[in-house]
Amino acid sequence: MRSLPKLVCAACVLVCGCLPLRSQVQPVPIPGGDLIPPFGLFNQFLPGVGAGFDGLDADPHGITNFRGLVALGYTNGTATDNAGKTYNVITDIRVYQGDYVGAVANGGAGRTKSARAHGTFVEI
Known about the structure:
By secondary structure, this protein is mostly beta strands. The chain is about 15% helix and about 45% strand. The protein has one helix and five strands. It has a three-stranded antiparallel β-sheet with strand order 3-4-5, with no helix packed on it. Strands 1-2 form a two-stranded antiparallel ribbon. The chain is globular, with a radius of gyration of 20 Å.
């Protein structure tokens, strides 16, 4: 019975840590992007050369109203699981740091209002 308060406390910390902060400013994704079958609209462009890419001048931003630095990297290779099965692995990693105008929750039913913020984001 002594461990019950510790368990309840740990559960509360876990739940509270998973909830977004009420005043947190969420970045707003860009309108449009690439259509990737069978997944649908992907709110990103894929800068690069070759099939499936949008050219070297494609915008790497995935956030609307963003001013700052963007780093982008693609990796391509193979991975092997414990059973010896090989998988092809392709990643698109983007890091953003700067100022942006995002959205803050403003009441119920998904209402939001615009707010300025500064942040660092990583997309994998």
